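User: Second chain of the day. Same drill as before.
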Amino acid sequence: MLIHISQTSSTPMYEQVLSEIQRLIVMGHMKPDEMLPSIRELSKELMTSGITIRRAYQELERSGFIYTRKGKGSFVSTLSEEKLAKWKLDQVRVPLLESVVQAKKLNLEEEQFQDLIKHIWQETDEH
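Assistant: Same format as last time:
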């Protein structure tokens, strides 16, 4: 499984695992009803505790990204387009909110901030 985690990140390990699996599902790298690695397998692969992986899986199940069948394992849920779109927006919302707060602290005008975002958006299209 292509999960990238950082041992030095301030983000808790289970949140990193959770976010990475959500990203794989949303981006279509994991398909509905595809089986996830067992907790033991993934903890070994990522060199982390089973408790960490279990917590990530529990949160994924609680949020509807996966479902678990007793004795069978955990599987990717079928997600609506609405849920996929909401997740993508939520991923951008937090860092964007921090930027808006910083811009307001610096007394930037809303139009200046919007122009900056448009400029950055266009810059990334060029690369």
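The first strand starts at residue 66 and ends at 69.

User: Great, on to the next one.
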